[in-house]
Write a structure and sequence with these properties.
single chain, alpha+beta, Ribosomal Protein S5, domain 2, 3 helices, about 35% helix, about 20% strand, elongated
Length: about 140
């Protein structure tokens, strides 16, 4: 009996968190149980597929299941691509693939820790204050 290998990784962007599970398979990619081909919007789909296309033939030998929660659609796309890239590097154990990801875009492999600054009292946003008039 052959034990099936599985790798689980995560990626974050703002409040979006993505968890990717990579197993040996036929090359299917699912986002929240939806096939990648019907995932909308198209801009987010292209962004998510970037690390898969850079991996080449190795990506055709694994199935990738991504679960995303929180954030907006572009934050979710950034979190998903980070999780997928980390998982593919962990699966292949190939340092040249990791170097290629880091050379193209560092956020492919390193999560973005920046958060929105919280709103404070006295204004509409984090820094804006109500103006005063002394006349």
């Amino acid at each position: 009996m052959v034990k099936q290998r599985s790798i689980t990784t995560s990626g974050k962007k703002k409040t979006a968190v993505a968890r990717a599970t990579i197993q040996s398979g036929k090359g299917t990619v699912r986002i929240n149980k939806k096939p990648m081909e019907i995932y909308e919007p198209e801009l987010a789909r292209r962004k998510i597929m970037e690390p898969v296309m850079m991996a080449g033939d190795m990506a055709n030998k694994v199935d990738i299941d991504v679960t995303i929660s929180g954030g907006g659609f572009m934050g979710q796309a950034d979190a998903a691509r980070t999780a997928i890239a980390r998982g593919l590097v962990g699966w292949s154990e190939d340092s040249s693939l990791r170097d290629a990801y880091l050379k193209i875009d560092r956020t492919l492999f390193v999560s973005d820790v920046r958060q929105k600054e919280p709103k404070k009292f006295g204004g509409r946003g984090a820094r804006a204050k109500k103006q005063k008039s002394y006349r």
